[in-house]
Automatic annotation (TrEMBL):
Keywords: ATP-binding, Cell membrane, Membrane, Nucleotide-binding, Transport. SUPFAM superfamilies: P-loop containing nucleoside triphosphate hydrolases. It comes from Liquorilactobacillus satsumensis DSM 16230 = JCM 12392. Residues 1-231 form the ABC transporter domain. It is found in: Cell membrane. The lineage of its organism: Bacteria, Bacillati, Bacillota, Bacilli, Lactobacillales. It comes from the Bacteria. This is Abc-type polar amino acid transport system, atpase component.
Length: 245
């Protein structure tokens, strides 16, 4: 993947088992967001291929229909929530059903309300994003991301824009999803959280996957690996705490 002449992702070879949770960690500017955006085809790859489920796209033969097919398989949860400001929480969650799946309004409302309820958000269903806390907004965007049952949900540092006291509520919402059969890819600096919910972890540096393995083993302060160095630097900066490993 390159921007102009600048190669941002290189040599990425990643397989994500269905129903698994993958944590992506790595320093700022290493290409984590670009990797997620490429998986979702918000960014078209300049080389290589991407396959989700039965849909595949090749950088050499990019077709509009294929792009659409892949995009409907995955959804993204952004750092800055990205809710539609002119729609209520309920209407935001209804929107993928109404606009992408052409679900009837009544049915979409019912489904969206049920998902909001799962996230403990039924009381704020009629409110507009501007009246909600960051934690509530992010939980609404997670509800919106899963309402139409995508194969894959991509999270880009979902808690990094939140006040510290709101982080736990959003992490709980994500942990609940991890128990279901949704395939999830999460870019996060919440190492302890990732260690608990992720199956595999990958470490990205300078646009390449430089370390990959079982999350519980890799996301640790022990050892000499690059991940251990990175985790230790976060701990030393007081950014995170990592328990018992
Ligand atoms: N739209 C863009 N145009 C040009 N360069 C970009 C663009 N988006 C990201 N980059 C560059 O690509 C690299 C990786 O960025 P990004 O994927 O956002 O990293 P991360 O999410 O790991 O912080 C950085 O050097 C960044 O400046
Ligand atoms: Mg990023």
């Amino acid at each position: 993947m390159q921007f102009g002449k600048k190669k941002v992702l290189n040599n990425i070879n990643l397989e994500i088992p269905e129903g698994s949770v993958t944590a992506i960690v790595g320093p700022s500017g290493s290409g984590k967001t670009t990797l997620l955006r490429t998986l979702n085809l918000l960014q078209l790859p300049s080389d290589g291929s991407i396959a989700i489920d039965d849909a595949q796209i090749d950088a050499q033969h990019i077709e509009r229909a294929k792009i659409k097919q892949i995009r409907t398989k995955s959804t993204m949860v952004f750092q800055q929530f990205n809710l539609f400001k002119n729609l209520t929480a309920l209407e935001n969650v209804m929107s993928p059903l109404v606009y992408n799946k052409k679900t009837k309004l009544n049915e979409a409302r019912k489904t969206a309300l049920a998902v909001l309820k799962d996230f403990g958000l039924e009381k704020i269903a009629a409110q507009y994003p501007v009246t909600l806390s960051g934690g509530q907004q992010q939980r609404v965007s997670i509800a919106r991301a899963i309402v139409a049952k995508p194969k894959v949900v991509l999270f880009d540092e979902p808690t990094s824009a939140l006040d510290p006291e709101l982080v736990a509520g959003v992490l709980n919402a994500i942990a609940k999803l991890a128990e279901q059969d949704i395939t999830m890819v999460i870019v996060t600096h919440e190492i302890e959280f990732a260690r608990q919910i992720a199956d595999q972890a990958i470490f990205v540096e300078d646009g390449e996957i430089v370390d990959q393995g079982v999350a519980k083993e890799l996301l640790s302060t022990q050892g000499n690996g690059r991940i251990a160095n990175f985790v230790n630097s976060l701990v030393n900066q007081g950014q995170i705490e990592v328990a018992g490993n």
